[in-house]
Amino acid sequence: MTTELTWLGHGSWSIETNGHTILLDPFLNESPTSPVKAEDVQADYILVSHGHFDHVADVAPVANRTGATVVAAFEVSAWFESQHGVKNTVGMNLGGGIDLPFGRVTMTLAHHSSQLPDGSYGGNPGGFLLKLTDGTIYFACDTALFLDMQLIGKAGIDLAVLPIGDLFTMGPADSIEAIKLIQPRRVAPAHYNTWPPIAQDSEAWADSVRANTEAEPVVLDPGGKITL
Ligand code: NI
Ligand code: MN
Hints:
The chain is an alpha/beta fold. Helices cover 22% and strands 29% of the residues.
């Protein structure tokens, strides 16, 4: 069974693997670039990287409609339980992993912040390493460049998803350095072109990836798909 990823714009992804549907950071109804609405997506699991609005906005409505399990930093999953009535959650923290029915999920470091929309403390921001039956995906999520990405790369990354928007996360130039550290087989950009302050030229980025790294760039439009 192959794994298929769909970019829902910004930092949002839907992953179909082994008959399971996983959402990452669903920001749909208020995203200018999402091709879908929160009412229309399915999920068995929802991974949440940190507490910012553009990552948590549609988590509770989707979780409460579908019964999906929310997987997030302990503080964020507890907030969904207490403030939004989400019934199924897994709270974790940096460096921790859990075996779920579709594969192993590890929460990786991210250098960012994580306050929740109501001002609640959201713990540490993270990324996700997904070891699936047919490959390994690293979602850096919202982060600056950091040297420990080299350690994450030791897992053998088939697909890395990196932010390139700049301003709130690393930008295109630092993403090239990140690719050199991670050494993924393929790399996809995210967290850009949602709003003018994070507009980027993804084709120029892809040219730079090809010129400076061994990785194959995969540039999608929102709604576009990658088969692992
Ligand atoms: Ni953020
Ligand atoms: Mn963000």
